[in-house]
Amino acid sequence: MKAIVVMSAVTSFLIRSGDWSYDNLDEWPETCLNGTTQSPINLEKASATRRNFSEIVFNNFYNVNVTLQNTGHTVQVTISEDDQNTLSPNITGGVFGTNYYFLDNLHFHWNSEHTIDGYRYPLEGHFLLYNHSYGNITNALNYIHGFAVISVMYEIEDSCTYNSFEDITETIDDISKNVSVSVRLRNKISIHSLLPTTTNKVFVYNGSLTTPDCNEGALWVVLEEPSCIKQSQYEKLSGIYSDRDALVEQNTRPLQDLYGREILYSGTAAMKKKFVRL
Ligand SMILES: [Zn+2]
């Protein structure tokens, strides 16, 4: 797919967050160091509170105009500004109830930041959403549950059927060594194709952004069922360079302390092993 390369000041909280790296975690802002509802965390089924949620409803996730950007820390897929209207991708239902949360961007972490019962996936996608009543992500970051993140895990599988990683990675060469250059994809993509089949088995908890400024108040919804990416696509996605001309080998924040937070879980709890006498 051909793409249009444009230099632009993309409004993104990731860009404005400035000069930080995974090599100097102890120099991250105050909230990152002293917050008590930080992300990511290990999600443990056995100790989670069972709760049933209705299905999340994904609206307008099929034909979406997007731009692609190397932020220096990740590959970010941002909803194009001309799509930021009522036809923009948004969600409702599930733990979100009757509230509408609009998609600001999605981006990726390799390896995964959350772990599920201690298991770390090779890739995690973060779908960053803001409550529509706050207007935009910048404003929404100031409010508890003003913003939310839906998290999707990915396994590397060469039998993975077509999804939009194809469109994204086809264009990635244009940005892999160019930090802050935005590339608008010529064709619309299906963001829905990056989701797993089952979206009602979820972990829900109160957390934060996993990058500076680590804003707290995020409603996290981590889908239990993974989706997939092909090996060649994974290599392209994780092959970007930072503004220091270094390969972004990993962009995974370490696990944070739970500090007694409750984790809600709507899937099937792991069966406790029974001691069987033969
Ligand atoms: Zn993220």
From TrEMBL:
This is Carbonic anhydrase. It comes from the Eukaryota. Its EC number is 4.2.1.1. Pfam families: Carb_anhydrase. Keywords: Lyase, Metal-binding, Zinc. Belongs to the alpha-carbonic anhydrase family. Reversible hydration of carbon dioxide. PANTHER family: CARBONIC ANHYDRASE.
